[in-house]
Amino acid sequence: MKLAELAKELKISIQSFLKFIQDFDLELADCLTTTFEVKPEFIKFARENKDFLRKYAEDLTKTKSVQQIADNIKQPTEKVAQVIKDEKPQIFENGMYRSSVSSFGIDNKLGGNYQFVYNYFGKNTKLTKRSFIGYRDLFFFISEALEPYLSNVSVENWGIHKPAGIILYGPPGSGKIFWANKIAEIIGYDFKEIKKHFLGTTLVDNEKTDFNDFLVTMMQEENVILFLENFDQLMAVRNEETSVNGCDEETKEIILHYIGHFEEEKILMIGAADSLFKIDRELLAPGRFDVAIPIFPPNAKERSEMLLYHMTKELASDALLLKILEFNKANLLPFWQEIAEKMKAYSNTMLVDFTQSLKKRIRNLYQTENSTEIKITKNLLEAAFKDAATKLTDQYLNQVEQFLKEVSRNNFEDFQLRIRALAEELEYYRVVEKPRKSIGFKSGTDS
């Protein structure tokens, strides 16, 4: 059953369901699949607690003051105010809060008894079985942008059409190609990456072919996502200070020529960019690449989950590494939380680098000691940590800083908590590594 069907059956909006999952910190894997199929446990919970969910949905649509929320959930006014202050929702001039604030969600954070909710989800989906870790806020944001692909409601009721182009922007290594594949999975499209050599003229079977030919061929297919890396470089605005690459300029013109036909030809192009700053504004016009989705580095909680995931991924049940992890209780999440906290602003790629380095070091120790009772010491973790930190350059930190400026300007209301958390982690490097320039970090070329 699709979430839209369950929402229609129970007369509760899809948005209320998604906000409920976030407010009660439910694992997405326990509730929904990537394609919005509802898990049996969640269907059972929703049907048996439809009255509560309707009260939750009704409360969510109301504007309300701190005092009204406190009276409703019988919690101290100052504690309610603190929760709201931490989340910083939108507020009207009269002091009333917008409908994104849930009285029940606040009550849950303050220790209200909602055990009946969690009784349905006693067996959490293992990390190795999840389609992705964390990022519920980003998944729901992307799903909202893709809504015209998932139903006809947006077109029929509001005249909102499918986007022809999407830009995923974020620091290097943050997982843009992962999310492009995830978008393909959500809307049921085939994922095809535009390789760099497709952009020029090449010989195929002794015949010349170019990017125009490639795009025309793709448009003869249906339900295809075309993924293009380095979008901000290829689509940069040209001026007197910027040298023009003829191949890039031709690529831009070809895309501008065809993008108006992408929707009817069931083509979606996704560009991956480190930043939106350099992209030609002409590309960002309505009907072109007018949907921009920020891809964040993982937060501390997600980092610990990712470390455990990558350390145990693809291991056989009797794997030597798994036995060593179990001996150290490193097959459990708490083991990784301390080192994950130190990895401030680390990208997904840096986390993978850390786990690969640590695995090799553990293997080397095993070959010396020939025992699975090897202690994973702090020194061992620190050595792998230093290996992963080689990509934490001043250039990377500057890219994170630029990303924060852009996402704060474009999507602050959507990602307030994530933006503030990343800003605090970035500030750590300013404090720890003084002296720094008054604005920004040193470039990678500075001595």
Automatic annotation (TrEMBL):
InterPro entries for this protein: AAA_ATPase_domain, ATPase_AAA_core, P-loop_NTPase
Residues passing through the membrane, by range: none
Domain ATPase AAA-type core: 166-294
Keywords, comma-separated and alphabetical: ATP-binding, Nucleotide-binding
One Pfam family in the UniProt entry: AAA
Protein name stated in the entry: ATPase AAA
